[in-house]
Amino acid sequence: MTRFRPKFLAALIAAFGHAAVLSAQETPLALTGAQLITISGETIEQGVFVVHRGKIVTVGPRGTAIPAGATTRDVTGKVIMPGLVDTHSHIGSPAAGDQSAPIQPDTRVLDAIDVRDASIQKAQAGGITTANIMPGSGHLISGQTLYLKLRDGNTIDDLLITNKAGRVAGGLKMANGTNSRRDPPFPGTRAKSAALVREKFVAAQDYRGKTARAKGDVEKLPARDLALETLVEVLEGQRVVHHHTHRHDDILTVLRLQKEFGFRVVLHHVSDAWKVPDEIAAAKAPCSIILLDSPGGKLEARDVDWKSGAVLEKAGVPVAFHTDDPVTDSRLFLRSAAFAVRAGMSRAGALRALTLTGAEMLELQAQLGSLEAGKDADFILLSGDPLSVYARVLETHVDGVKVFDRENEKDRLWATGGYGAGQPRAAHLCCFGTSEEAR
Amino acid sequence: MKIFTPHFAALVSLLVATAFAEDLAVQGETVHTMAGEAIRDGVVLIKDGKIQSIGPAATVKIPAGTRVLKAKVVTPGLIDAHTVVGFSGILNQPHDQEQLEKSAPLQPELRAIDSYNGRDPLVDYIRGFGVTTIHTGHGPGALISGQTMIVKTHPANLEQALLNPAAMTAATLGSGASADKGKAPGTASKAVAMLRAELIKTQDYIRKTKLAADKRPARDLHLEALARALDGQQPLLITVQRHHDILAALRLAAEFKLKIILDGVSDAALVLPDIKKSGFPVFLHPTMSRASGETENLSLETAAKLRKAGIPFAFQSGFESYVPKTRVVLFEAAVAAAHGLSQNEALAAITIDAAKLLGIQKRTGSLEAGKDADLALYDGDPFEYTTHCTGVIISGVVTDAQPR
User: Fold this and answer.
1) How confident is the model at residue A435 (pLDDT cuts 50, 70, 90)?
2) Can you tell me the distance from the alpha carbon of A21 to that of A54, in angstroms, rounded to the nearest whole number?
């Protein structure tokens, strides 16, 4: 939390001649003339878009009244859409669970993320304003994920989102298939993987029961267990499971466990989704999918196909995209939607998948994901059609603060790369290797 | 029960593909010949696998009964200047990874044709986007990993598809050449020292092979292969990323009068004058390559800078150790086209420019009478994400007709 009051800050900026805006506007900012892709409603040509104090205040057609005293910028010919929501990313190089055990729900990305990592700057350059930062997929349960607003933060606290329950917003990362398989104490087969997970959830049910029966009596309460406590949040529906899964049978295993324990789940990657769309639809499990340049690279991803977006959309399954950065590049996140459209997904569905549908998967749809008055002023300014290879992200705004400006020399380096762009970025590739057990 | 399983469909497509080339006419609203201006409303006539004639529709008469294919945009079949497709298989399991043999740091004797798998699904995959020719083989990761080859992505027999069975010798400098811990080379200097020693040994071998029969050395496959790199028959393809390692490669080339190609070259923008002065061409890293470690300085704008500096270059899909198992050279050129390169320049770098740098320009790379009928058909700007490749023709055979 900053102790500087806005007025003092403004004076400070003026004094040092910085062009960078460090806080949300005290005066309203009106952007006029752009195409407004609202996501929640019709696209507005040459619209009026006004933000103030970190919130969207006006989304309307040409001629809509602009608040008195507003700073007005003519952005005719440009496109404005909501900031992108990446439902699965590893920016900030987080690690949660270690190699000591396959189930570690007590570990938190919160305690492991570097908010100064270049990958976060690059994500802003790609138009991403909200991301679900996940630990890797090398565990059955690898830890607690974190939903972040990609503000320019000094510490992790500056990027956090507080959810309705007053808790730091985030989910739980789980995985099945081959990534979480290796030598003991890790499972060696798929059945063993499921058995270990069931065992832990049964323990969590028991823990929850004991806690309830104790009715707050300290003498009767079970000893506090951080892992089980987290799983109780999952059982109570307060923490969504983000489940890495590829093969069709592994997808069905997730759905089977979900049914048994009643947790809420988002399926991630879901390479074989196009083989079992009806089963996924019946379970009402939303899917966060990845679109890769080619299939393969690991056995489970052999059949990954751009058509999954279209197939799932047709089956009525909510679809969002993710970068899995560094697996795909945050700066090119828009490309995922374009490839989904190439393979048959609707344009509206694909644009929604980049924004509002992703927000729904993170339970943030009430505050972000579309251009609507009252929502957070998270938006991007594009040079053209978001699905075109030639379109560029010109500006990214989070809570009304410009966090990326292509005109700015430093920001531009994050967008294009070049000498120095990689310096603070540590290579964090969770899954390199050639053998099946290698993650 | 479904009769048309994917395997059956694949079999049918193979049977079709092995059929003789048929006479075809391809009509394009825009035909990028890459030999002069694009032709509006153009026709390419194909006979016996070759381009018979090409020109505006008004000037090219299509013989009655000829099968006609239509497309919005027609380009020459695309060329991937450097890949490991056919070597690094789709599954990424030990049994399908043939691109790197780590038992010794210098193995120029490893021929590409002895392990190329033209039926790996990734060959079909990239062909579906219009890639008709690949320069593939032993990959980066060893000081000298082996040889490379140039082949059409034709699913028919290898003999027909081969353009050059022994194209180049693949080398790596910089930390990418490092052997396993405790083994040489372990540093960039050691790598150069080892390569110099081996080339000197080769010079000596070449000298001795010219002596009288009884004084000639026993045949040595290893040195024989290096001799072909030394005399320029098989240029040395040096994968190198850091600026100082690029200079080391140029130093080596000057010392041994080598014909080299700079491959990868993430730091190219830092040493443009040196590269330009050397006269050597560049096979640029995939535009969207991951920036980390040796490649941390790569930029989406390097292609445009090479072009501006007048350095000949081509695009490649490169090598991925993980996901995705290959990139698609069309997409790499597309992103460069969105970052300072003109559309025509980007297209040239995956067609005629690549053909020239690979020495196959007499066969393919542009749409001209007498050249192989290698064509790619699109329903819009080939670089746009949402455009589909609607057809692929290799040596007059329609290999793909499903929009991709």
Assistant:
1) very low
2) 12
